[in-house]
Amino acid sequence: MNYIFYFLIVISIIVGAINGKLNDVVNSILIGAELSVKVAFSLIGIMAFWLGMMKIADKCGLIVFISKIIKPITKRLFNEIPENSPAIGDIAMSFSANAFGLANAATPIGIKAMEELQKNNIDKTSASNAMCMFLAMSTAGFQLVPATVIAVLIGIGYKNPTEIIAPTLLVTSITFLSAIIMARIFQKFWKPQFPNKEDK
Amino acid sequence: MFQLIMNIISLWALPAIIIIILTLGLGRKVPLYETFTDGAKDGFKVAINIIPYLVAIIIGISMFRASGIIEMLARSLNPILAHFNIPADTIPIMFVRSLSGSAALGVFSDIAHNLGPNEYATKVAAVMVGSSETTFYVLAVYFGAVGISKLRYALIVGLLADLIGIVAAVSVCNLMF
After folding, report:
1. Pair (B91, B163) in one structural domain
2. Neighbouring-strand partners of residue A126
3. Integer Cα distance of B169 and B177 in angstroms
4. Which residues form the domain of B16?
5. How many helices (H) and strands (E) does chain B have?
6. Three-point CA angle A80, A65, A104, nearest 5°
7. Are B157 and B97 in a shared domain?
8. Residue B117: is its pLDDT beyond 70?
9. Which of A71, A147, A196, B168 has the maximal Cβ count within 10 Å?
10. Inter-chain residue contact B126 with A59, CB threshold 8 Å
């Protein structure tokens, strides 16, 4: 992350200077800062709502029930997570929310899943294999219907906007599967985590 | 038919989940109101926790976009990509879609409005945007919420998957349209 952070900012300033856009680059610091707080604050309400809902789902046994149904799949994908961990149910809920294009439900539930995964993490500052797998699944963005894209297409008078669904679904499935496979491969070859002493 | 089913699912997915959760909770004698508010308490905490991570990532990304580097890359890649029948207009989307979801949608609307509905590039762009998720944003929010700063291979996998998504989008469009 240190290199990415450095690269993003220093390269932007240098390239901005070359392009004569240094002013824009500097202004974008302020814009970005405002935007990030706006994003975080806009999450508070919907976050609270879904965390509340998920707490009820947890208490009435729904999360455990979902975990049991998808156990055969998750056992392979998240082999380091205890079988009865609530993380599995949360991951399933977050994935379904993503698939149905419910982004504002997927993010809070995804964060809750991350928190559950963190409980099983041996080094609290670095990402566990299970977290990397969950992130790979989430960033691949599996979605059944690209609703916003279709809305734009309808807006420009596209005759048959739903013809975009099939290719999109195919592409998103390819991306999703390859993300899972790659996470699995990297898990094998990447340097394993070590327990962090500060956590104890 | 497929579209009708999809529309019904998108419309009813949320309400159905909410009804199921609440009804099950009531049936199992869970104190709904107390449990809800107890869980909701954490909403504020989580949102505040992710601010430092969001600030770092979003400022980095907005500086990157303001610098004009994406246009530069697009220009230099154009001759190579034209070789594979990839429309030049879709190049900015390839870079933007991992960085910012709203920006990717913005670029896409731009392309769609400028080129019109019948252009091949519009279709490729639609598939590219529709099949992507903002890797950097998800990374910052999900890892930020639990305070993880060492990403290990998470970003590499995310970006490789994005790359595969672009290749897949171009190939599928080539075959279908």
Report:
1. yes
2. B150
3. 11
4. 1-40
5. 10, 0
6. 80
7. yes
8. yes
9. B168
10. no
Asked if B45 is an interface residue toward chain A (Cβ–Cβ < 8 A), one would say no
User: A126 phi and psi, to 5 degrees?
Assistant: -120, 155
Cα separation, A121 vs B135, whole angstroms: 22
Write down the pLDDT at residue A199. Answer: 47
CA neighbor of A135 nearest in space, from B46, B140, B95, B61: B140
Cα A181 from Cα B38, distance rounded (Å): 38
Q: Using a CB–CB cutoff of 8 Å, tell me whether A118 touches chain B.
A: yes
Which pTM does this prediction carry?
Answer: 0.86
What is d(CA B172, CA B166) in angstroms, rounded to the nearest whole number?
10
A162 class by beta-carbon count within 10 Å (0-12 exposed, 13-18 middle, 19+ buried): middle
Residues B88 and B16 in one domain: no
For residue range A99-153, what is the model confidence (pLDDT) as tens digits? 877 777 888 899 999 999 999 899 989 999 999 999 999 988 787 778 788 888 8
ipTM rounded to 2 decimals: 0.86
Q: Is the Cβ–Cβ distance between A179 and B135 less than 8 Å?
A: no
DSSP annotation of B177 reads: -
Position A112 in a domain: yes
Beta carbons of A11 and B161 less than 8 Å apart? no
Q: Which two tokens stand for residue B151?
A: 């990403």
User: How many distinct structural domains can be found in chain B?
Assistant: 2
Three-state secondary structure call for residue A19: coil
Minimal C-alpha gap between B117 and chain A (Å): 5
Q: Are residues B4 and B76 in the same domain?
A: no
Tell me the mean pLDDT in the region B97-116: 85
- When divided into structural domains, chain A yields a total of 1
Residue B171, classed as helix, strand or coil, is: helix
Residue A24 lies in a domain: no
What pLDDT, on a 0 to 100 scale, did the predictor assign at position A200? 41
Please check whether residue A84 lies inside any domain of the structure: yes
pLDDT in tens, A60-69: 888 888 888 8
Mean pLDDT of B113-133: 87
Q: Are B106 and B18 in contact (CB under 8 A)?
A: no
**Cβ–Cβ below 8 Å for A105 and B9:** no
Most distant CA pair in chain B: distance in Å? Answer: 65
Token pair, residue A170, equals 């195919």
Its domain, for residue A181, covers 62-199
